[in-house]
Amino acid sequence: MPESAEKQIEELREQLRYHAYQYYVLDNPDIPDAEYDRLYQKLLALEEKHPELITSDSPTQRVGSAPLAAFEQIQHQMPMLSLDNVFNEEDLYAFNQRIQDRLNSSDEIEYTAEPKLDGLAISLRYEQGKLIYAATRGDGSTGENVTQNIRTMKSVPLRLLGEGYPQVLEVRGEVFMPRAGFEKLNRLAREKGDKEFANPRNAAAGSLRQLDPEITATRPLSLYCYSTGIVEGGELADTHYEILQQLKSFGLPVCKEIKRVTGIKACLAYYEDISKRRDELPYDIDGIVYKVNSIALQKRLGFVARAPRWAIAHKFPAQEEITRIIDVDFQVGRTGAITPVARLEPVFVGGVTVSNATLHNMDEIRRKDVRIGDQVIVRRAGDVIPEVARVVPGSRKKELPEIKMLEFCPVCHSAIEQIEGEAIARCTGGLFCQAQRAQAIKHFASRKAMDIDGLGDKLVEQLVDEDLVHTPADLYKLSLEDLVALDRMAEKSAKNLLNALEASKQPTLARFIYALGIREVGETTAMNLANEFKTLEAIEQADFDQLIEVQDIGPIVAQHIVNFFQQQHNLDVIDQLLAAGIKIQDVKIADSAAQSNSVFAGKTVVITGTLPGMSRGEAKDKLLAAGAKVTGSVSAKTDFLLAGDKAGSKLSKAEKLGVRVIDEAEMLALLNE
After folding, report:
1. What is the pLDDT of residues 188-246, one digit of tens each?
2. Going along 333-415, which residue ranges are E strands?
3. Widest distance between CA atoms in the chain
4. What is the distance between the alpha carbons of residues 45 and 51, in angstroms, rounded to a whole number?
């Protein structure tokens, strides 16, 4: 047995344990993932060369056991108790009063407050710092042996770190699935046509109870430790909070939201703080747990039935409830998106009475097989719009008709389009539809479109609310009297806006097309349309086959353009704009030969910083006319970075990637070559 190999293997194991601790416990990794992988592969290679040196607590030995036929039963030496619950302040004050009465004290009690994780309770037993077994809570007295599955979780140390841990240490914790991992798991299930998990808790429980540990190893499970069980051959701290810090120092992950608080008012302040941040947390919780912090006081208080007297769970209002769909309406969003909305028998969920819930889109309706009359589970999380999560299994007693998408917009009666491959259906009456009015006008007036100075978002909202503007064409009908009658609109500001409207009446064809707000027609696409068709009339009359021949226009965008110009409402607004005095300027289009000879033809350019002699928009127009593709971010595919003053991070990235950096003078010189 080579001494050098044995020493090298142990050093690598210690390094990997340390870096796992930094990553999973402290959330502060010292090294990149790639470096961790290199250390791991180095250890793996050494162990393959010296199999006699492999130990069960090596970081390489997390997976490898054969699938089980069934789980063994494990008797808990110390029962895994449940907690009593409270649902309001009054009951929490009563809990505190019972503790003070039992302790014969009026002093404020110090508690440890921590989020109540919505997962699966687990018990881990370590002997001499080595993981011996892991068991589920089960009925509190007997659980299932899930050791092989727990070993696959990288957040669970196979050997404790440091020194000073007891010879026997039983740790209790919660296995859970973070939200991001849950969404990814369900997305993969959808792609494979497999059944999805209803929620992260079910996903965590199902993953931990796999008979094949290799399946568990693919699931994104995490662990937070919250207490201890049997402790032998050593002592822990005399407060619950300090014990958790000790567990953390041993390499066991502990929730960073845990906090010491004194008195019930501080408990309630903690509850309110976590409630507000609940939806920002990366994991699901269903309440707060308060535990008397002093271990001595815990022992004095003892237990009642199957719960400790010294701890309580303060539950959040239920986030899921059962109700029935009585109808489905379709709402039109500010961008024309059509959203099906379920009208429900009112139900109290997430702290409020809910009578409407989103069904998202038709794909979701079909996937969940939701129908009017169904009994459904409604979910509401914080301020998130309530949604129909799923149909209650077995609740449909008779055949119900399928929900169908409308053919025409319920607001403006324009046709509804749903491009193949897209989940969202949309109204095509972009310039006319009342539901899209404010958004369409804001886009029309924006700097890269008609560039109407002084027409900000708040003023647009005000004009729409006062019923002064229905379409972009109405902007050019506004009078001084109309504007000065608005709140906080001085005569000088009104005159400035009228002057800006007048100045905007001579756009280029590309700007005008962009201003119309056609779905997925950005500045570059608008420029390509202008270059190809030369006139607005030609673009209006272009068919699908002509459009897909244009640079960077594919079938989906081509169909959006066709649909837009097929709506008479949109054509009427365009006619009104032209009648109001809009005169589209001839675009200075380089001919194809000139474009093909340009240095920038077919090249990708990014613009950053402040240019000395022109705006970035003007520089972009020149580059687009020369056949360049102008994008917003630097990548390995970028050919040029046009950099002005205060270029910042894009310049640094371009230099790092070896992208050619030019200034305004060099750009102009290259354009003139």
Report:
1. 888 887 778 878 888 898 888 888 888 888 899 999 999 999 999 999 999 999 999 99
2. 337-349, 352-358, 375-379, 387-391
3. 96
4. 10
Model pLDDT for residues 35-89, shown as the tens digit of each residue: 777 787 888 888 888 888 888 888 887 765 566 667 889 999 998 888 888 988 9
User: What six digits make up the tokens of 550?
Assistant: 């244009």
Which residues in the chain come in under a pLDDT of 70? 1-3, 24, 27, 63-69, 305, 381-384, 586-596
Let me know if 193 is exposed, middle or buried by CB neighbors in 10 A (0-12, 13-18, 19+).
exposed
Asked if residue 75 lies in contact with residue 142, where contact means CB atoms within 8 angstroms, the answer is yes
CA-CA distance, 282 to 178, in Å (whole number)? 6
Side chain identity, residue 536: L
Q: What is the pLDDT of residue 1?
A: 47
Which secondary structure element, helix H or strand E, spans residue 444, and what is its range?
Answer: helix 437-445
Tokens of 515: 């201003």
Which residue is listed with tokens 């059962």?
A: 322
- What the block records as the tokens of 358 is 């989103």
Contact 423, 190 (CB under 8 A): no
What's CA 646's distance to the chain center, in Å? 32
The tokens for 341 are: 């909305």
Q: Where are the alpha helices (DSSP H) in 146-294?
A: 147-150, 179-192, 200-208, 213-217, 240-249, 264-277
Q: Do 497 and 454 form a contact (C-beta atoms < 8 A)? A: yes
Of 163, 259, 291, 172, give the one whose Cα is nearest residue 224: 172
Residues identified as active-site = 116
- Residue 549 to residues 130, 162, 544, 546, 591: CA-CA distances in angstroms? 67, 67, 9, 6, 17
Q: How many residues does the chain have?
A: 673
pLDDT given for residue 590 in this prediction: 47
